[in-house]
Amino acid sequence: MKSPAQIAMQLARQWRNADLRERRLLQGGEEWPIEQSIGFPDSAEFAGMTPRLRQHIADWRAVSEGGPGRVQWAQRKYRAGAAPVDLPVKWLLDKPSDWLAAAQDAEMQKQYAFLRETLAQIDPCLHRLVVRRTALTQGLSPQELILATRVAMLLTPGCAEGRPLRALALAGNDSKFIERHETLLKALLDERFDGEATRQGLHAFLGALHATEHWLLVVPLAQGLLPFPRLRLAASDLIHTALPATHILVIENEQALHMLPSKVADTIAILGAGLNLEWLAAPWLRDRQVSYWGDLDTWGLYMLGRARSCVPGLRAIMMDDLTFDAHAPQAVPEIVHAPICQRACWILKRRFSSASRRASAAALSKSS
């Protein structure tokens, strides 16, 4: 059998469970009431009507009469007793304030008060992140979090257009606000854009000038073009400095490095550009044959479009119907689309659906 104090400790631990916290605060009636089992005394404790048992019953009588929540009682018959005895069975907590009062945990009360003040002024699409990741908001005032979420709702891929982060004044924020709260803003943008801000880096995602530059991985695919097998160059350096190859292969992600062929004549690959593509407007690239290889999703197509705005004759590599059809059975849903036109999203969905149907038909044909 458990005392109110013992169950209070359990309730405080439950608050620290992000899954439980999210369900109970955001999913409403489905999770309430919280039912905490109290348990029964064993036969030995009952037979002696020990002081511990008397105190146990008195403690739960006090909760039953004064709250928080409700105590469910049940009659239980023991051999040592002449008649059934009323004993506390469950503690029922009907709402978040009951949970808070029952747990009697100072940190929990502080975090709950913070959430109660801020959530009403935050876009619902960000509620889940704010409720789950309380460490992100530790040390912030409610006003700072509310401002950060408003800024995050106004930021979009490439919106900086080559300007530094300090030049982005969107919701009354000061010039250093985005830099001070970069980790929080990146997490908020990840929630909106399916992790793209972290995957690309905040500066590249927003298309902002990085104070310490955006570094690109440069890899020659033929011997004799560069003195090193790989090196890093600042994107701004590529605007003014030509690379000694006729063919330039631009690749969205650095992870593709190990999939490149070791020998391609007169070709240099530039990896990890992400959304930072302004350097493709460099005059020397007009005399080169430029190709682009990115993810075959709306983000990859969005970046391909931005690259083509700098190099109109750019050629896409493995970003066509044949490639999509060949790998459609391994495709996964894209939760958040890049800010491209509706028609592009419609085309991708249609291609995915038709390719999936063909793959299913082929599988059925083989099995029959």
Structure explained in plain terms:
There is one protein chain. With 368 residues, the protein is α/β, with parallel strands linked by helices. The protein has 4 domains: 4-104, no CATH class; 110-206, no CATH class; 215-319, Dna Topoisomerase Vi A Subunit, Chain: A, domain 2; 321-368, no CATH class. Helix content is 43%, strand content 13%. The protein contains 16 helices and 9 strands. Strands 5-4-7-6-8-9 form a 6-stranded mixed beta sheet. A hairpin with an 8-residue loop joins strand 2 and strand 3 (85-93). It is elongated, with a radius of gyration of 30 Å. The protein starts with a helix and ends with a helix. Residues 363-368 have low confidence and may be disordered. This is DUF3322 and DUF2220 domain-containing protein. Residues 4-190 form the DUF3322 domain.
In short:
The protein is an alpha/beta fold.
Strand order of the largest sheet: 5-4-7-6-8-9
- Report how far the terminal alpha carbons are from each other: 61 Å
Measured as a percent range, the helix fraction is 40-55%
What's the main sheet like?
6 strands, mixed
- Give the ordered list of helices and strands: HHEHHEEHHHHHHHHEEHEEEHEHH
Low-confidence stretches: 363-368
Number of domains: 4
Gyration radius, in Å = 30 Å
CATH architecture descriptor name of the largest domain = 3-Layer(aba) Sandwich
Q: Give the DSSP E fraction (strand runs of 2 or more residues).
A: 5-15%
CATH fold type of the largest domain: Dna Topoisomerase Vi A Subunit, Chain: A, domain 2
Structural class: alpha/beta
Number of strands: 9
Number of helical segments with 4 or more residues: 16
**Average pLDDT for all residues:** 85
CATH class of the largest domain: Alpha Beta
